[in-house]
């Protein structure tokens, strides 16, 4: 099983063809902690567990950084400006570390669900995404990772904030080109 620990997401980046094109057997599954994600993992795992050379990246997008950590108030004094900048970077790093620690178990649970289907875990990579916009983060990962297929769910848990709502799936289908999109309900 290939996994990336928080803070080292690039080590196991999916392979692209030598000409930079996408690989049809390289799947990105966007995951959250919903029952819909569990169903998607079960479907994909059972469907592809015996298909040779299929690799899967389980991808979870972290919550956006709080607004107060995006920039400091600034100062006319260059020394104070430097101190404020250093403190802001430190606060951002602490927030990222805490967020990674809180959110990484979502990837581990997704891996367990995929493993339960019989899909070989040595062909699975875990990866966190960092950005304020879920769709843009997923699209950036798809484009840079050489994925041939993106798998998302349309519905999250009832009554909860939905990571992969209909509007997100619709936006992905509109903005994604040259990649297969599986929207699993």
Automatic annotation (TrEMBL):
Residues 25-174 form the UspA domain. Residues 1-23 are annotated as: Disordered. InterPro entries: Rossmann-like_a/b/a_fold, UspA. Pfam families: Usp. Gene3D superfamilies: HUPs. This is Usp domain-containing protein. It comes from Nitrospira defluvii.
